[in-house]
């Protein structure tokens, strides 16, 4: 691999292909807008368009493995360069990786039986390849602490395979279960990454000392979140009464709440690049609390509760990370662009409408879902409007990347 200081070769590469975050953030955010706009149009106009696996499968799979996974890979494959000081993926290998992701998105729109296996293979291949790219510099530098992300990506790949098997083998209910465990696994990833970056970003952005982590609390919140994933991944939930599952979700929500309060989110109200991270993490609390309520009293569907983790924790946290990481990794000051706070609020209100309002007033479900979709599209369109130039231009400080 080339070193980070190899400026001569850097100048021969288009800026967008110099680091993984650039194309994956750009195309991932664009896909977030197009996929949700397309999805809500099929609902409002009652379109019956063909998709690989059907419309419901397409929506669940593409928002997780089309949108969220693109952002995860953009973040991790860029961060690994900072962790190891070994040049991350760039140039032609990066073009290939992004093209593989894009081809997967196109094939998932086609419902031709002759192309089903091709669609599954192309879509599945992305994560194993990314695992190898991520693991190599970590192993070279023996940074075993960061190797935790490789098994997480591997488990994501397994869940993705299960979703495809549900289509290819026509196993009813498998893709819904695999999608749910994927949501729980990504929630664990947010738990790990959030615990690393939110206290640091808060202290740096607001100007107070970073709170010292309580090791017992940090371990407990990660273990509890991971245990929920294992519980459902291995289908051990079938051995427990609903009230016990509700208790596990409730205790996990409380652990996340206590952890978040130690980061002093109330001190961040003047800093959009910071309070948005706390808002995204806060939806972990809301999501696990709603899942506890669902399992205890069944007042609303699991899907409604789960969207607090998808639209809320994932959507808001992703937008918060995109806005900050895109500035930092492009050598620009960490100053929020004009109107950024408004776009971030759109994402937050989208999550609240899709979860809280839908749970309270389910008779207006179409209105809440459509309004949430509109706000979601505005939020990520705002990011694209303000950040496309940043993602496609050289670093402002002249450094590689």
Automatic annotation (TrEMBL):
Pfam families: NnrS
Entry's transmembrane regions: 21-44, 64-86, 93-110, 116-135, 147-168, 174-195, 216-234, 240-261, 273-293, 305-327, 339-360, 366-385
Keyword vocabulary terms for this entry: Membrane, Transmembrane, Transmembrane helix
Domain of life: Bacteria
InterPro entries: NnrS (IPR010266)
Name listed for the protein in its UniProt record: NnrS family protein
Organism annotation: Idiomarina tyrosinivorans
């Amino acid at each position: 691999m080339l070193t980070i200081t190899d400026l001569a070769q850097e100048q021969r590469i288009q800026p967008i292909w110099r680091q993984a975050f650039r194309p994956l953030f750009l195309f991932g955010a664009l896909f977030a807008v197009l996929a949700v706009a397309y999805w809500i149009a099929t609902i409002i106009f009652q379109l019956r368009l063909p998709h690989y696996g059907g419309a419901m499968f397409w929506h669940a799979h593409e928002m997780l493995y089309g949108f969220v996974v693109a952002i995860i890979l953009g973040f991790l494959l860029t961060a690994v360069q900072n962790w190891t000081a070994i040049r991350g993926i760039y140039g032609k290998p990066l073009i290939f990786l992004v093209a593989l992701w894009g081809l997967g998105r196109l094939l998932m729109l086609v419902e031709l039986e002759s192309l089903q296996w091709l669609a599954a293979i192309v879509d599945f291949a992305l994560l194993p390849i990314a695992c190898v790219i991520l693991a190599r510099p970590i192993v070279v530098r023996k940074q075993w602490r960061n190797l935790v992300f490789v098994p997480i990506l591997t488990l994501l790949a397994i869940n993705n395979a299960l979703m495809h098997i549900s289509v290819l083998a026509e196993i009813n209910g498998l893709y819904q279960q695999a999608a749910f465990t994927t949501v729980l696994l990504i929630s664990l990833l947010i738990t790990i990454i959030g615990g690393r970056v939110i206290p640091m970003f808060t202290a740096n952005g607001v100007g107070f000392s970073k709170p010292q982590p309580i090791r017992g609390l940090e371990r407990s919140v990660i273990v509890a979140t991971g245990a929920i994933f294992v519980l459902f991944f291995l289908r051990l939930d079938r051995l427990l009464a609903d009230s016990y599952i509700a208790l596990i979700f409730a205790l996990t929500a409380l652990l996340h709440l206590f952890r978040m309060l130690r980061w002093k989110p109330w001190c961040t109200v003047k800093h959009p690049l910071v309070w948005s991270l706390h808002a995204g993490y806060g939806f972990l609390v809301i999501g696990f609390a709603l899942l506890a309520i669902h399992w205890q009293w069944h007042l609303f569907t699991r899907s409604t509760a789960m969207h607090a983790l998808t639209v809320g924790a994932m959507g808001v946290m992703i937008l918060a990370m995109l806005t900050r990481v895109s500035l930092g990794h492009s050598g620009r000051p960490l100053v929020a662009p004009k109107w950024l706070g408004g776009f971030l609020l759109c994402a937050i209100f989208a999550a609240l409408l899709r979860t809280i309002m839908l749970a309270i007033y389910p008779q207006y479900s179409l209105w809440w879902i459509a309004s949430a979709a509109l706000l979601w599209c505005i939020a990520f369109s705002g990011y694209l409007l303000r950040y496309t130039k940043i993602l496609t231009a050289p670093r402002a400080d002249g450094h590689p990347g």
